Amino acid sequence: MNKRSMMRLLATGAVATVTLAGLAACAPAGGDTSNEKVTLTWWHNATADPLAGFWQDVADEFEADHPNVTIKVEGFQNEDLQRTLIPNALRSGDAPDLFQQWGAGELAAQVRAGQVKDISADVADQVAEIGGTVSPWQVDGKTYGLPFSFGIEGFWYNKDLFAQAGIEGTPETLDDLYDAIDKLKAINVAPIAVGAGSKWPAAHYWYNFALKSCSPDVLSAAQATLTFDDPCFVEAGDYLTEFLASEPFQEGYLGTTAQEGAGSSAGLLATGNAGMELMGHWNPGTMGGILAEESGGEATPPAFLGWFNFPGIEGTDGDPTAALGGGDGFSCSADSPPECSELLAYIVSVDVQKRFGEIGAGLPVTPGSESGISDTNLQQVLAGLKKATYVQLWLDTAYGATVGGAMNDGIVNLFAGNGTSEDIVTSIQDAVKTL
Amino acid sequence: MSNLSRKRLEIGFFAGPALLFYVGLVIIPIVLAAFYSVFRWDGLGPIVDPTCIDAYAAAGSLGPNYCNRFVGIENYTRAFADPVFISAIGHNFFILALSLVIQGPLAIGIALLLNRKMRGRALLRLLIFIPYVLSEVVAGLAWKLLLLPNAGFDTFLDLLGWKGDKPNWLAEPDVVMWTMFLILTWKYVGFAVLLMLAGLQGVPEELSEAAQIDGASWWQTQRHITLPLLGPTIRIWAFLSIIGSLQLFDMVWVTTKGGPNFSSATMATYLVEIGSSRQQIGFGTAVAVILFVISLVIALVYQRFALNRDLEGAMTGRGR
Q1: Fewer C-beta within 10 Å: chain A N or C terminus?
Q2: Residues of chain A above pLDDT 90, percent
């Protein structure tokens, strides 16, 4: 500890000699800081427009309102940010002030280590306004971050290809889905694109089968106590095995990434090479970004896009209207200046949230901002979210990095044609033992 | 000042900074890693937390034994019980073996060829060496793009006459390690050739001339004169190649991240993926210690039995 604070002191000294702003950032927090110069670092997961540019705009606006604040905004690739950059930055004690926060299990671990700032008092109004959606960003009743977006996932599909294949309406049951897969194969299109190389997109199939196999009570208990004894978890694997046997995915899906370029699963759907993709509400934004990179034009999502919820399964314990969802938020690190929570409050203000909805990057969370959602698909996602009687947070986020990662590996192993439904549950339980 | 103390001062002056760096950046981290490796630790909080209360741990999703984090050798037994880790070790040795068996002879062959006087020799030497100069990330990304289905590499194969279905080079579990070896060979054969060429400059021409006068063919000259005299260079190259194969990380991480489904994972990518990304620092350092011990043992054995005649006097015994 002494060595570290010594290093910090040295580093501080070096920075202070270079910029006045650097000096101010290291000044003790609290008191009236409105006139002192402050530099905020802000890490988010948007690497392409429209979202990347949007966050920069938000930062510029905040700077304009707070002349003493300078904001350094940086966007990183999602998995690198979540799995490597943020954990390492937190560990090293040199964390960004405001950083992307996925909530729940991961947040709990960071809070326990004292790396995240309790902002309950600073954002009490915002918490009251946003309501229950904040709960994944709370630990033991205290607020450690705020979501700026929350939505559920479902199948994004190509309406043109569906029409060409003669698929009427959207699949309501699992059998409908199998039917659609066969029809898409008949017109030589990869029915579903999945980015199994990024692991989680493949894992989400098991999550959805678990959601439709297990009762909400079992799922809540599993998240709280990390027990997975209920047979419904094995059943989820059986449904997945059956689903995989129908060979619904594009060739080489094990090596496909989710969001990088035209060869990714989002890219395959965006360029008309696949019929569907199971993905979160951010997908139109992602696809718009990929298309813009390819063409060099504006970042607009493809016009042929439609959305439907993951079909329910008859005769199971699962709630057919249940939805799997998650959100994106930001947390302030433990040593961040008070301006950090002010910026966070600005990010979730109705005005910013409305514009967030307008760019189609996802569903905003603050009531009153829904009117900004111009994308008809996102309106459908919102309707699905409102209709859902039970919303389960992404399972890997809910269970934390250790258990969630082992679970995803177990599922991808099944995708690769190895292992059994039981093996997935065993790998989860083994990981729980190592906590 | 006496001669002796002056000598000591000199040694201290010249060796001191290097020693300080070596202890600080090599020895201490190794000791720390060995220490971390016997704990179940996520790297977020202090490793031994006297204020930890089991009741708090039980209330959250932190696991039942959250506060008792000393686990002895459990991390090691867990690593060796994990088929993914065992296969990762296998992948390291796969690259190691293929490097020695294919890359080595290939490099020697190219070096012998390029050592002959011929037109365009300088250009050929340059072309073979260029990949080695590229940064690993740049080369890896370029290959990743080239190897996408129906992208550059497949089109090239089409031109060569291989029509029809081709493997998905980086996405098929059975193919990916061979692809990886191809990329690594492309990247590192230039370095091996450079070493061999340098070694060839040390082979006295008189010997080959004498052999030629005695009626030896070009092949016989290479086989009985050049290769034996190239021995020290080959052994050093093999040593570098072995260590490089065991610690293989960058190229795999950039192209596949160890995937699909860990089928190109190496010990190093496994330790980053499971140890760091999963926030299991204790387990990750146990894997790091295993990687270190394997590398150390192989290096020592190799030095003892293969390199000792080359290093005679330099690293063994007292200077003559």
Answers
A1: N
A2: 50
Q: Which among A108, A114, A402 is the nearest to B60, CB-wise?
A: A108
- In Å, how far is A412's CA from the nearest CA of chain B? 6
Burial of A238 (0-12, 13-18, 19+ CB in 10 A): middle
Interface mutation target, options B180, B277, B283, chain A, most CBs of A under 10 Å:
B277
In tens, the pLDDT along A321-331 reads 788 998 899 99
Structural domains of chain B ordered from first start:
82-279 (1.10.3720.10)
Asked if the domains at A2-151+326-380 and A153-325+390-433 fall in one CATH topology, the answer is yes
Are residues B170 and A255, on separate chains, in Cβ contact within 8 Å?
Answer: yes
**CATH number given to A153-325+390-433:** 3.40.190.10
Q: Is the peptide bond before A337 cis (omega within 30 degrees of 0)?
A: no
**Which is the CATH superfamily of the domain at A2-151+326-380?**
Periplasmic binding protein-like II (3.40.190.10)
Please answer whether residues A285 and A375 qualify as being in contact, where contact means their C-beta atoms are separated by less than 8 angstroms.
no
A393 close to A104: Cβ distance less than 8 angstroms: yes
State whether A255 and B172 contact (CB < 8 Å): yes
Domain definitions of chain A by residue range: 2-151+326-380, 153-325+390-433
| Type of residue at B162 | W
Write down the number of H helices and E strands in chain B: 17, 0
